[in-house]
Amino acid sequence: MDARSEHVAGHLLAWYDRHARTLPWRAPPGSPAPDPYRVWLSEVMLQQTTVAAVKDYFAKFTTRWPTVADLAAAEDAEVMAAWAGLGYYARARNLLACARAVAESGGSFPDSEDELRKLPGLGVYTAAAVAAIAFGRRAVVVDANVERVVARLFAIDAPLPGGRTEIRAATDRITPDARAGDFAQAMMDLGATVCTTRNPRCLLCPLSGDCTGYRAGEPERFPVKAPKAAKPHRQGRAFWIVRNEKVWLVQRPGKGMLGGMRALPDDGWSARGDGSGEGPIAGPWTPGGAVQHGFTHFTLDLHLALYSGSEVVSLPPDAGEWWSLDRLEEAGLPTLFAKAARLGLAAMGETDR
DNA sequence: TACTCGTGGGA
DNA sequence: TTCCCAAGAGT
């Protein structure tokens, strides 16, 4: 490692010793590594997700499933419902697949980056992070925080995503052999609290003396990103069908949007187009209001249709389930459908009681 | 490579 | 309000 890199790593670790955030899944700086199960679980939850959003879910999962063996033994539906609201549901499916793979191969996580990378849900970032944080292995850990810190530190102009190659090489250069986990977490803490996307606190930064972006007077210009496409706006319909104080819920297909989650029946809306308007039965329907929901790549107006027929509805049992209205919170509906269900309950309050 | 895949918070 | 973004992975 060259002198500048050693200097950077030393300053950063000294800063981390004083300013590390205290987080439920983290060991204090310099102390023994935490349980790999907890490190892995937190890293998966934190993928594209803020610390604030993860905290309650992490507590819930570790209380309910204290070890990877406990999680591996859980029912799919239980885990999916527990994940409801956190988003990116493929993570929950892969979480279970990973827990079961680990449980079947002896119950311990592999301690090398290469082996970790083979597990479902562990990509380049997460495998490196777990290797470093849980096992003290030197690994090049690059998340969005590190990208920002490094792009500013070296004033890397190449726009993302292409510029990631250069950023990774630069990160490799400043990554020390010792205290691998602390270094990775220090970079992420710095990015989260000092080297922030907007209004970076350069006067408080331990690396400002080494930072080319700061010296040039425009740290916020980095990292350069390619412009994004506009989000389309879609229309869809969900159906609120009640019988004997129970509502009809379906399970969505295992892949794709909200895959594997319990949901209200809908008309097949997607990122690519509006729904057909057709429901699982003929109706008649009464308008029950609409909710707007923003996904990563499109915005959806979901209109709720209330069944208003006088006949008692019959539906094929293998297509869904009648779910008690007073236990609706336990169904684990993703946020979009939880919003729609609130409309349905409100509409019933106006008419029934 | 470029898409797809959630959600809530901040500016 | 609207846009951007956050400890990315899978295909």
From TrEMBL:
Which EC number(s) does UniProt give?
3.2.2.31
UniProt keywords, alphabetically: 4Fe-4S, DNA damage, DNA repair, Glycosidase, Hydrolase, Iron, Iron-sulfur, Metal-binding
Which InterPro entries does the record match to this protein? A/G_AdeGlyc_MutY, DNA_glycosylase, Endonuclease3_FeS-loop_motif, Endouclease-III_FeS-bd_BS, HhH-GPD_domain, HhH_base_excis_C, HhH_motif, MIG/MutY
Which co-factor is required?
[4Fe-4S] cluster
Q: Which reaction does it catalyse?
A: Hydrolyzes free adenine bases from 7,8-dihydro-8-oxoguanine:adenine mismatched double-stranded DNA, leaving an apurinic site
Q: Where is the HhH-GPD domain?
A: 45-193
Coiled-coil zones: none
Look up the domain of life of the source. Answer: Bacteria
| One matching Pfam family | HhH-GPD
**How is the cofactor bound, as the UniProt entry phrases it?**
Binds 1 [4Fe-4S] cluster.
Q: Which NCBIfam families match?
A: mutY
What is the role of this chain? Adenine glycosylase active on G-A mispairs. MutY also corrects error-prone DNA synthesis past GO lesions which are due to the oxidatively damaged form of guanine: 7,8-dihydro-8-oxoguanine (8-oxo-dGTP).
Family, as annotated: Belongs to the Nth/MutY family.
State the name under which the record lists this protein: Adenine DNA glycosylase
